[in-house]
């Protein structure tokens, strides 16, 4: 039952594009693609670029996946194609429908990381990473002593900033040569190479258990990179990106402004070199608007030279061909065409549009006039371009001023001081590798490609920009509007769309990537959100070829999870960097822990085969990144330890940056820091500024929390609970769901400096459930007397006067932080330790290891031991004991296999009224609702909703945690019954004995595990007793077949009349009250909850419409036989009762039940081995004559064939009687005439007819009930005359009896009736022929308007259909389109000409087929109404009190007959039609499958309102609905 392999199912739905949804999977998982309801039945092909085993991954190479259908059945509920995931990375899938792409998405498979000499696995949640700025490591031969700090601090991953040669700015991320190791690392005596680095990385992996990753920077290169001068095409320059020319001109003008300001030329105008106030800012604005913009006239780059254009236009006008110009499209307006070279006044106009717009009359004056109009229009267009440029210029000024304020005035800015050439007014946007000259001279260069190719755009970032858009490409005005926050040391790289667009750059960067992947286990994608996706994809593909389990991390600043997901899914990012520094208080920091990993404590155990759920990206949660500002400045030095602990307790990867642990009190700048990191020396003194050890900063505590983080990740402490104790104290619990041990870390944060802010001495008490085994760590941030911090000139030193006091693995009584710990009892079996703190000062942490109370630990172990039989997952943490209840020594399946299907009805189902009849009721959950069933399905329906979402806050779970009521209800309900059912109850009770001894927060999880184990076993037991069709059927078939268990049960009181005592194999039981033996046959409920108990449980018509699907197809032949014979015993007036009423209260007011009964006998004979034996079975007649009182069983027995003959004889003779006790006591709505029942067979046609306009003898049996609307006592659908399905059923019966008589299996070949006092013989042959000869003549509505068979041509409103009845008292009713003719098509297809049948079915499909059911009336009919409301009482005759029950609402069971008819006739119409029909059938059935899976009743409803909407008056699960769908699946 428990899979060991993890399988995830991805349901495909039509047009579902999931590119922005993240699906994370692990290697070793199996991914199954299955068809969602919208695709079932369609020809769907799934393609993926996940490579077949043994092949290399190629992103562009897709292959189709083969479908597997384990049951080989025709429905698509179990069909899947699969991938066994053994490779890490990002993989794409899409699916086609009839060769049209229909949807798709990505999956990300996590890498598996290995460390140590034995290659042990490092789980991603165990990662503890530390960032080093490579340039601060010093000469390579000193690296080990500096990196050892990370090893001794307990980190297992080091992130190096780039190790390549740096550019002039010395920024860690501005690289001069991507292929060369930074020469700074070499010494005069030794030049180091990449292989030296590789050896060190390998040594750290093998000996230190540390993995190494480094950055890859794809976006830019240093301005002084030699290769970019040789290959200027790799940058955005004025040759390949001429759209940047206007921005370049502005940039140069701003440079000249810088020079002028620095030289004091603007001092008189109020702008000195040192900018200090707002007035000077206004001066800058004025100068830019008045001096610069008018001088550089940027608008000219976007305008047309007016005189030149007018001259050209005049020339064209006067030319001869002017006459031939055709009138152009009036929608084409005159507009400026941008000059692709961006020359001043270089834009043009489409002269053809101009000539067609301005057409002169005759003569030269007219040409002048035209030219003037043309000139005016161009001037207007040029003016529009000027307006646009003013809008850009306004934004540019604002951005310039914003920049100046930040760099020169803002308190948090760099305060650059006077404007100089070194610190210009604004950072330059473009390179300019030439000497000084005037702006006018410079501008001449832009038209010389040999020079302008070296004017390259710098990189940077744009606030709030769309990360998927490249801001340097045409269409973006970022450079012109000065919106770029620019990195003046780097040139932005221009890749184009594919390697062929810039071969050198792609090859260079690919080589760079390959070097990185050769020597490192992972990469950090720098500036990921503005790296073009297709570039990063290409490079990572190259990296994964070398390092298949590449660990990829990135920081994304997209501002939206959906956008993040695009990068994560396309690039296969393993972990996204998340910053704890983004938290503004401890509460927010705790929330981030909860957000980035783990599941709630006490979560349900998820099955190993389950749907693939969208995930959030795996987090690398960092207390500080190398880009963050210093937390000591923003918070306090005392917060380093508690915040690091909080971050480390998250169930994800965690990380920090070198300098944090040593308490370096400033940001270590990636640009300007040139000092080296300190080295490791265990003996160094606190005042030593170049060395550190366990006494420095928080290193000792860091080592302990890193070790703990790795242990929690490795040992499966995947459950997380965050408790905000007070505004500064956060308690985080990590819990292992298999061994039920917890680790609780209590951190008192210090976001405010404790020296200058008030912190209360009163710390709240804490309650920790369970038994504290040890204090894993207690650490306090304390001051020590040593010289205060002074920034060292050579080493990056921390604060020497602050350190941590650390104690590890001590007992509670040794703790200095805990004052006392008391033990209190919370519940019967729940122990809580109350902790009182005394020294939990700001900057302190204490971490407890907690196990369950020993008694509870044993109980959990025993429970897990007994759950192994259902799921091997429970092996860990299990405990075998010998003194358990003896019943637990028997495997549950041994007990369950003794259950009958009737027992299973009691165990699994029974709705409220059935339970009440047995003296009980369904469990009612406070603040929610009662369960649907008393049996296990009632609970499982709720748990199935809660489990996947882990909805532990639901009232159901609250009820379980609050007390044992529900637990006791489950077992006591079963123990109160007898036999094997009680044994199951005792088994559950024995399991619950241990369940009650575990902490309440774990009860929902284990209650669910016990029930799901029992439940799935019971389902298997049920299916094993059914037919091979069910046993080998699809999931859909199996789940539908449970409707047989749901509907067929034995109550406290027998519902069926007793069978003949001489009939063999009848089940008996001891009556609890009389202590006498009584028959206990299964009866079939019509529907739940309304028709489930008492006299309203069994109905003749419902029973026999449902019997084939519910009992015969499922292989329950004996139960089917007993029901057929029990009803046979009640035959009276030649009819089978409608309401059975145990036989004694039977009402014989329906004309169709007897024909459905006969159809079932026929089906029984055909489907059951030796089925015709039933014809000889004894039937105990309750009413041997119409007027006899009910006789006890056994008084008068007859073989079944005689009873059948009597039914046929009575119909041919003619049936006429008045119902017994006619009047309001049996029907308060019926009019007096309605109690008169008639039925007979027409001599001429052989059609069965009957009824009158005051009663309704078919399944459409709604009787009017409203006095207000004056419809009381009037049937909505009398269907008197010959109803089409009855004619079909009778034809089926007559044909079958004729065949039987020919085979001597039925002793009668004819029926003898009295006519005018004489005996007349009517043979079955003759009767059969009459119906055959007349049916299509009289029922088919011909396409030919002059058809002589048509009695009422004026009533025809749809041609090509079959009438609903023939000879109705209201003739127009015959012509209504309803779904009943499809029943006749299934039971008597010989009556129909295939072509005519097909046409009628097509009309029915178009007009009547709904979502789940068939509309009961043509929507074009004037009385159609698709919404059934039985409570509505108004003046509307057609609606009041649900009068439209069968006048539009969509009933489910007819859809089975419609689809079966379509299948039958489609085979006669040819292969293509048949294939299309199979698709239709599967597609319709997929909706039933979805409903069945989602319904808490686990059934199909009686009806729905129009378009499949829920109808609250319908039975939630109806026998004939389930049966009809099973039958169509059987036919498939």
Plain-language structure description:
By secondary structure, the protein is an alpha/beta fold. Helix 12 (533-546) links the parallel strand 22 (522-525) and strand 23 (551-554). Helix 29 (1100-1112) runs parallel beside helix 31 (1153-1167) and helix 38 (1453-1469) packs parallel to helix 40 (1519-1531). The protein starts with 6 loop residues before the first strand and ends with a helix.
Task: Please describe the structure with a list of short key phrases separated by commas or semicolons.
seven-stranded mixed sheet; 1532 residues; eight-stranded parallel barrel; alpha/beta; globular; 40 helices
**Roughly what percent helix?**
25-40%
The CA-CA distance between the termini, in Å, is: 29 Å
- Report the average pLDDT across residues: 93
**Main pleated-sheet profile:** 8 strands, parallel, barrel
* C-alpha Rg (nearest Å): 43 Å
- Sheet with most strands: strand arrangement: 12-13-16-22-23-24-27-28
Q: Could you say which structural class the secondary elements and strand pairing correspond to?
A: alpha/beta
Count of separate DSSP helical elements? 40
- Tertiary shape: globular
The poorly predicted ranges are: none
What percentage of amino acids are in beta strands? 15-25%
Number of strands: 57
């Amino acid at each position: 039952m428990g899979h060991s392999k993890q399988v995830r199912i991805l349901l495909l739905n039509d047009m579902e594009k999931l590119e922005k949804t993240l699906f994370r999977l692990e290697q070793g998982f199996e991914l199954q693609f299955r068809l969602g309801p919208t695709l079932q039945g369609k020809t769907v092909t799934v393609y993926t670029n996940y490579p077949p085993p043994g092949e290399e991954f190629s992103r562009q190479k897709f292959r189709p996946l083969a479908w597997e259908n384990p049951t080989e059945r025709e429905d698509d509920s179990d069909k899947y194609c699969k991938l066994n995931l053994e490779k890490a990375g990002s993989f794409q899938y899409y699916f086609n429908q009839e060769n049209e792409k229909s949807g798709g998405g990505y999956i990300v498979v996590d890498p598996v990381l290995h460390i140590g000499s034995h290659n042990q696995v490092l789980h991603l949640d165990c990662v503890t990473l530390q960032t080093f700025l490579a340039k601060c490591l010093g000469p390579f031969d000193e690296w080990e002593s500096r990196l050892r700090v990370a090893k001794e601090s307990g980190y297992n991953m080091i992130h190096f900033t780039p190790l390549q040669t740096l550019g002039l700015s010395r920024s860690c991320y501005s690289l001069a040569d991507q292929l060369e190791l930074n020469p700074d690392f070499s010494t005069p005596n030794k030049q180091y190479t990449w292989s030296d680095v590789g050896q060190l990385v390998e040594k750290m992996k093998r000996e230190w258990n540390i993995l190494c990753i480094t950055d890859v920077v794809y976006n830019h290169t240093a301005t002084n990179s030699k290769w970019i001068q040789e290959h200027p095409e790799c940058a955005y320059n004025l040759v390949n990106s001429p759209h940047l020319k206007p921005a370049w001109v502005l940039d140069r003008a701003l440079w000249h402004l810088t020079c002028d300001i620095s030289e004091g030329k603007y001092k008189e105008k109020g702008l000195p070199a040192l900018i200090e106030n707002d007035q000077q800012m206004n001066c800058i604005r004025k100068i830019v608007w008045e001096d610069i913009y008018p001088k550089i006239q940027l608008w000219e780059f976007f305008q047309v030279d007016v005189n030149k254009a007018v001259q050209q236009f005049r020339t064209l006008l006067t030319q001869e061909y002017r006459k031939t110009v055709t009138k152009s499209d009036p929608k084409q307006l005159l507009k400026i065409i941008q000059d692709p070279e961006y020359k001043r006044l270089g834009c043009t106009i489409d002269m053809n549009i101009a000539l067609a717009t301005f057409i002169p009359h005759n003569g030269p004056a007219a040409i002048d006039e035209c030219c003037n109009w043309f000139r005016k229009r161009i001037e207007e267009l040029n003016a529009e371009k000027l307006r646009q440029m003013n809008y850009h210029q306004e934004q540019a000024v604002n951005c310039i001023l914003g920049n100046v304020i930040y760099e020169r005035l803002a308190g948090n800015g760099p305060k650059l001081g006077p404007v100089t050439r070194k610190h210009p007014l604004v950072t330059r946007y473009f390179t300019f590798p030439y000497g000084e000259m005037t702006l006018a001279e410079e501008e001449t260069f832009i038209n010389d490609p040999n020079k302008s190719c070296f004017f390259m755009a710098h990189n940077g970032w744009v606030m709030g920009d769309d990360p998927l858009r490249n801001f340097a490409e045409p269409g973006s005005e970022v450079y012109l509007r000065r919106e770029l926050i620019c990195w003046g040391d780097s040139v932005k790289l221009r890749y184009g769309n594919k390697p062929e667009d810039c071969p050198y750059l792609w090859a260079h960067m690919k080589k760079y990537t390959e070097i990185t992947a050769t020597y490192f286990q992972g990469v950090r994608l720098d500036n990921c959100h503005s790296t073009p996706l297709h570039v990063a994809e290409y490079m990572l593909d190259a990296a994964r070829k070398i390092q298949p389990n590449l660990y990829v991390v990135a920081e994304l600043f997209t501002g939206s999870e959906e956008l993040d997901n695009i990068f994560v899914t396309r690039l296969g990012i393993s972990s996204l960097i998340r910053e704890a520094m983004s938290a503004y208080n401890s509460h927010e920091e705790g929330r981030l822990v909860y957000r980035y990993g783990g599941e709630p404590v006490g979560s349900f155990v998820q099955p190993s085969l389950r749907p693939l759920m969208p995930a959030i990206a795996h987090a690398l949660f960092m207390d500080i990144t190398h880009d963050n500002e210093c937390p000591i400045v923003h918070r306090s030095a005392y917060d380093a330890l508690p915040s690091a602990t909080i971050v480390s307790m998250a169930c994800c990867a965690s990380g920090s940056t070198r300098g944090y642990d040593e308490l370096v009190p400033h940001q270590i700048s990636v640009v300007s820091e040139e000092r080296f990191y300190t080295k490791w020396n265990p003996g160094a003194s606190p005042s030593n500024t170049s060395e550190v050890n366990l006494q420095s900063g928080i290193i000792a505590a860091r080592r302990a929390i890193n070790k703990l983080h790795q242990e929690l990740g490795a040992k499966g402490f995947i459950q997380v609970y965050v408790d905000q104790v007070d505004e500064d104290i956060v308690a985080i619990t990590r819990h292992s769901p298999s061994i039920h041990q917890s680790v609780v870390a209590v951190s008192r944060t210090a976001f405010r400096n404790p020296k200058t802010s008030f912190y209360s001495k009163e710390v709240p008490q804490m309650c920790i459930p369970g038994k504290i085994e040890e204090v894993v760590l207690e650490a306090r941030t304390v001051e020590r007397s040593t010289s205060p911090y002074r920034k060292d000139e050579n080493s990056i030193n921390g604060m020497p006067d602050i350190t941590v006091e650390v104690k590890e693995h001590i007992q509670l009584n040794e703790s200095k932080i805990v004052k006392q710990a008391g033990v209190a009892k919370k519940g019967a079996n729940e122990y809580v330790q109350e902790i009182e703190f005394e020294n939990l000062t700001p900057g302190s942490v204490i971490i407890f290891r907690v196990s369950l109370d020993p008694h509870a630990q044993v109980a959990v172990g025993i429970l897990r031991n007994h759950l192994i039989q259902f799921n091997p997952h429970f092996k860990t943490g299990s405990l075998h004991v010998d003194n358990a209840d003896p019943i637990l020594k028997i495997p549950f399946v041994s007990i369950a296999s003794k259950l009958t299907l009737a027992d299973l009805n009691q165990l699994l189902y029974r709705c409220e009224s059935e339970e009440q009849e047995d003296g009980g009721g369904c469990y009612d959950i406070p603040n929610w609702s009662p369960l649907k069933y008393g049996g296990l399905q009632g609970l499982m329906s709720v748990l199935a909703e809660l489990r996947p979402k882990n909805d532990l806050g639901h009232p159901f779970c609250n009820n379980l945690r609050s007390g044992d009521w529900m637990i006791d209800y489950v077992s006591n309900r079963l123990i109160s019954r007898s036999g094997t059912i009680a044994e199951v109850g005792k088994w559950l009770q024995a399991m619950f004995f241990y369940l009650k001894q575990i902490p309440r927060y774990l009860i929902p999880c284990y209650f669910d595990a016990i029930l799901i184990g029992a439940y799935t076993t019971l389902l298997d037991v049920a299916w094993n007793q059914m037919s091979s069709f069910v046993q080998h059927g699809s999931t859909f078939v199996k789940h539908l077949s449970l409707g047989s268990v749901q509907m067929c049960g034995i109550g406290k009181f027998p519902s069926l009349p007793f069978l003949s005592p001489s009939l063999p194999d009848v089940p008996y039981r001891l009556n609890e009250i009389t202590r006498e033996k009584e028959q206990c046959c299964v009866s079939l409920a019509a529907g739940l909850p309304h028709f489930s108990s008492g006299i309203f449980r069994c109905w003749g018509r419902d029973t026999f419409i449902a019997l084939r699907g519910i009992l015969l197809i499922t292989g329950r032949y004996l139960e089917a036989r007993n029901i057929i014979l029990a009803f046979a015993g009640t035959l009276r007036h030649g009819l089978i009762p409608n309401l059975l009423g145990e036989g004694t209260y039977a009402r014989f007011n329906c004309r169709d039940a007897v024909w459905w009964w006969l159809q079932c006998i026929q089906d029984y004979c055909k489907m059951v081995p030796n089925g015709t034996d039933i014809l000889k079975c004894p039937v105990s007649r309750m009413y041997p004559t119409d007027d006899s009182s009910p006789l006890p069983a056994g008084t008068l027995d007859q073989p079944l064939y005689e009873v059948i003959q009597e039914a046929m004889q009575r119909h041919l003779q003619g049936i006429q009687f008045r119902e017994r006790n006619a009047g309001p006591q049996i029907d308060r709505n019926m009019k007096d005439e309605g109690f008169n029942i008639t039925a007979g067979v027409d001599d001429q046609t052989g059609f069965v007819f009957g009824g009158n306009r005051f009663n309704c003898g078919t399944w459409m049996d709604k009787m009017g009930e409203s006095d207000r609307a004056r419809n009381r006592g009037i049937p909505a659908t009398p269907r008197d005359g010959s109803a089409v399905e009855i004619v079909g059923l009778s034809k089926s019966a007559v044909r079958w009896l004729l065949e039987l008589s020919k085979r001597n299996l039925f002793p009668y070949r004819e029926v003898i009736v009295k006519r005018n006092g004489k005996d007349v013989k009517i043979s079955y042959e003759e009767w059969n022929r009459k119906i055959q000869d007349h049916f299509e003549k009289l029922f088919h509505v011909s396409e030919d308007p002059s058809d002589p068979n048509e009695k009422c041509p004026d009533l025809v409103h749809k041609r090509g259909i079959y009438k609903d009845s023939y000879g109705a008292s209201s003739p127009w009713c015959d012509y209504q389109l309803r779904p009943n003719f499809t029943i006749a098509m299934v039971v008597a297809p010989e009556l129909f000409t295939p072509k005519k049948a097909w046409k009628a079915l097509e009309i029915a499909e178009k007009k009547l087929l709904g979502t789940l059911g068939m509309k009961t009336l043509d929507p074009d009919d004037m009385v159609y109404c698709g919404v059934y409301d039985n409570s509505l009482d108004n003046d509307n005759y057609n609606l009041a009190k649900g009068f439209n029950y069968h006048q539009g609402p969509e009933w489910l069971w007819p859809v089975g007959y419609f689809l079966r008819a379509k299948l039958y006739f489609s085979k006669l119409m040819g292969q293509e039609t048949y294939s299309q029909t199979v698709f239709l059938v599967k597609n319709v059935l997929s909706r039933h499958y979805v409903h069945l899976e989602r319904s808490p009743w686990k059934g199909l409803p009686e009806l729905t309102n129009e378009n499949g909407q829920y109808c609250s008056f319908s039975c939630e699960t109806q026998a004939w609905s389930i049966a009809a769908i099973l039958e169509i699946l059987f036919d498939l």
